[in-house]
Design brief:
The protein is α+β, with helices and mostly antiparallel strands. It contains 8 helices and 13 strands.
Length: 344
């Protein structure tokens, strides 16, 4: 009954505010328009017109704004083209057309881990040996568990690589060529990006690297947060003392912080508790039964998708390794970021 009530609240969306996708997207679109970034404004207005919780009138308004942005972009381009000076050639030789330089990508093994450089951004993918663990409300969580963390159940995951840190703004900018994070800084985790935008980022990163990156399943996320096969049974990711491992409501100063400033967990992963909540690939569902399960990845469809780990403005109990939350695919917030998984 409790779980059902949680899901009704999540589905309510607008009433909660946190899950309202229309208004935040419209505000971001207007900010882009005011900055003169009409291309981005058009994209955001079109996203707003597809928000699940908006009315027909709101959809029409967003579509109209998208068309206005498109026209403004065309007018800006026409003005720029008409203002260009025609220079006389200084040589009889035909010059080769200038092309954008391709993004340089490299990687190398460091023990069991793999380190990538994409453009000027470098990041590590940490090897996580697969295994079986108890997922959900376990004894070290004490009385803090919510109804959707029950029943605790045995889960088996295969081996994979997990990002040492949350995806930084430096990497996001190299891949996406824009950055609309609320808190700005190359070494800060990217924030204010929707699940759908993350999928676009991953597709582009895979094209650049020729590898298969993706979001973690919920089981992969919790297994890694608990320390995998090296787990010491901590309440938070890497410690029973939240201040040692997490930026949260009581110590964040109401902002995100550069990655890797707190203590790592048993696997060498940073900030899996706090800083920004991390998106997973699974739809938000109840735990079914208490029998042993193999991680099948769940479904990435539905109106609510899983986010994990708590964020910079969360209370301590929301930063526990078993705490669960959710978000709509189109919603964005400065609470939300993500971490990558790499298929072996």
């Amino acid at each position: 009954m409790f779980v059902g009530l949680v899901m009704m609240i999540l589905m309510a969306g607008t009433a909660m505010g946190q899950y309202d996708c229309y208004n935040p997207t419209m505000r971001a679109a207007k900010a882009s328009y005011d900055k003169g970034d009409y291309r981005r404004a058009e994209q955001l207005y079109r996203e707003a017109s597809e928000c699940y919780d908006c009315t027909a009138q709101q959809k029409a308004q967003a579509k109209r704004k998208a068309e206005e942005s498109k026209k403004a972009l065309q007018a800006k381009q026409d003005t720029q083209n008409s203002g260009k000076k025609q220079e006389k050639p200084t040589s009889s030789k035909t010059e080769k057309p200038k092309c954008d330089k391709p993004v340089k990508v490299s990687s190398y093994k460091s023990g069991d881990d793999e380190i990538f450089t994409v453009g000027k951004a470098t990041f590590k993918m940490v090897w996580v040996e697969g295994g079986t663990f108890t997922m959900g409300c376990t004894s070290e969580q004490g009385g803090d568990c919510s109804g959707d963390e029950y029943p605790a159940h045995s889960m088996t995951v295969s081996s994979y690589y997990m990002g040492e840190t949350e995806v930084t703004q430096a990497l996001w900018k190299v891949v996406m060529e824009f950055n609309f994070s609320y808190f700005e800084g190359d070494n800060l985790p990217v924030d204010d990006v929707s699940w759908n935008q993350v999928q676009e980022f991953i597709e582009k990163l895979n094209q650049l690297t020729g590898r298969t990156f993706r979001l973690p399943t919920e089981a992969e996320w919790e297994y890694a947060a608990r320390g995998g096969s090296k787990s010491r049974g901590y309440k938070y990711s890497g410690s029973n003392s939240i201040d040692a491992v997490a930026w949260y409501k009581d110590n964040s100063g109401e902002k995100t912080h550069p990655v890797k400033r707190k203590q790592a967990n048993e696997l060498g992963l940073y900030d899996m508790s706090g800083n920004v909540e991390e998106r997973c690939s699974d739809g938000y569902n109840d735990y079914y039964g208490s029998e042993s399960q193999n991680d099948s990845g769940g479904s990435s469809t539905g109106s609510i998708l899983v986010v994990r780990g708590g964020h910079w403005n969360d209370v301590a109990s929301s930063c526990r390794v078993s705490f669960r939350s959710g978000s709509t695919p189109n919603s964005s917030s400065n609470f939300f970021g993500f971490r990558l998984v790499l298929c072996p």
